Amino acid sequence: MEKYPSLILLVSKPFGITSFKFTEQVKRVMKAKKAGHTGTLDPIATGLMVIALNDATRFIPYLNTDTKEYIIQVRFGVETDTGDISGKVVKKSESIPSMDEVQKKVSAFIGEVEQVPPVFSAKKVNGTPMYKLARNGEEVKAKPVKVNIYEIEVKSFKQGNLVLRVLCSKGTYMRALARDLGRALGSAATLSAICRTKVGKFSINDATYISSLKAGKTKGIVPLKDALDFPVLQLRDTLFESNNTSEKSGGSRRLVKAFLNGNSVPVRFVSVTDKDGRFLGVARIEDGAVKPEKVRPAKSVYGEVFGKSAVPGKSASGGSVHRGKNLPKNGGKK
User: Fold this and answer.
1) pLDDT beyond 50 at 250
2) Could you tell me the pTM of the whole model?
3) What is the pLDDT confidence band of residue 106, given thresholds at 50, 70 and 90?
4) Confidence tier at 237 by pLDDT (50, 70, 90)
5) How many CA atoms lie within 13 A of 76 on its CB side?
6) Which long-range contacts (CB under 8 A, 24 or more apart) does 30-33 make?
7) Catalytic residue numbers?
8) What are the structural domains of the chain?
């Protein structure tokens, strides 16, 4: 094993710590030289953090983080300056909506919506984070931003506390959603609890705790090649081959050296497999796309039960599989 392994860690952040400090804790426990994460959680937030260690940090921009899922609790009756319970109360209301009113109103927040980011947020105005301006007593006017909310599920509503599951695009503020929902219902509301449960394809169900990492347990570790959603191109050689082997393979060892030195590697054809390693055919790389050159029949790959009518992406009747109108295919990145 590498002395400083480059990998992705799925870790559950506890309440009351900043994302920066938590990432530093994970870095120390894993004895890593470098660490970074894919998205900040506020101190009051818990849940999934996707943390990259060592050389994996350079691949953070290529991880699919376009969609997020949260379980949030919205408290009706008060609105705060921060948008959550950590802030100063700026509005009170004795009007608490009914479950029917909530159910009818949440549907208005599905789709592409405009949000005004909370004043106490990392959103920048003229290069300065808004929270810094707000803490200095400066008046901050945030501009609305467009975000996508794909799903909202009402989990429970008791004694003015509403629990929701929200699937949304990156950059959506749950504090703004809580605030805006309260206003839309003629009340006041603030975010009282939040847990991030998904980031792209990564789930809290696969995450570990820092205490488990200290105990040497391996749950939550994702190899970098599995964390990326790109097709895999395998050069059939390695820098560890002997010179004789390299010569027999047509000198392809030079291609690995060229690639690692930042030089282009000429590729005309590639072998294509599915995620389980089944060979599907040969493709050519053309105009930035992988185009089929020669493919195997689907039933030869998957057997009769996975014949032509069951090729992934097709329904039994031959039509396209339907997805939500706004939900990105494959979670976002191509």
Assistant:
1) no
2) 0.77
3) very high
4) low
5) 22
6) 30/213, 31/4, 32/4, 33/4
7) 42
8) 7-65+202-227 (3.30.2350.10), 67-199 (3.30.2350.10), 243-319 (no CATH)
